[in-house]
Amino acid sequence: MAWINTLVFVIIGIVIGFIIARLTMRDNSQQKDLKKELEKSRYELEQYRQELVDHFAQSAELLDNISRDYSKLYQHMANTSAELMPNLPEQDNPFAKRISKISEVTEESSSSQEPPRDYSDGASGLLKDQKETSKAS
C-alpha cells in the first residue's frame, strides 16, 4: 500500500511540476520578446544618434563653407571698390573699415587649425622662481 501511495504522489508531483513549468515558460517567452524589443529600441536609438551626429557635422561644414564664401565675396567687393574708386577717402568707402577685420579673422582661423599645445614655452607657476634662481647660480 505504501508503494501505491508513493507512486500516486510522484505522478501528482509530476503533473503539478509540468503545469508550473508551462506557466513559467510563458513568462520566459514574454521576457524574450521584451528583451528583443529592448535591443531593437537600443539599436534604433543608436542609429538616430549617429544620424544626428552626421547631420550636425554636415551642417557645420556647410556653415564653414558659407562663411568662407562670404569672406571671399567681401574681399572681392573691397578690392573692386578700391580699384574702381582709387581716390575715394577711407571714411566714404564702406569696405575699408571692415576689410581689416575680415583679414584678421581669416588669419586667426587659418592659424587656429593647429591643435593646442598642452604646455607653455617657459616655466610658469610655483616652479618659475626656482628655475630662475638655479639658472642664476
Automatic annotation (TrEMBL):
Residues 84-137 are annotated as: Disordered. The keyword Cell cycle applies. It comes from the Bacteria. Signal peptide: none annotated. The keyword Hydrolase does not apply. It is found in: Cell inner membrane. Residues 31-65 form a coiled coil. It is a single-pass membrane protein. Keywords: Cell cycle, Cell division, Cell inner membrane, Cell membrane, Cell shape, Coiled coil, Membrane, Transmembrane, Transmembrane helix. InterPro entries: ZapG-like. The chain crosses the membrane at residues 6-25. GO terms for cellular component: plasma membrane. Its main location: membrane. GO terms for biological process: cell division; regulation of cell shape. Residues 128-137 have a biased composition (Basic and acidic residues). Belongs to the ZapG family. NCBIfam families: PRK11677.1. This is Z-ring associated protein G.
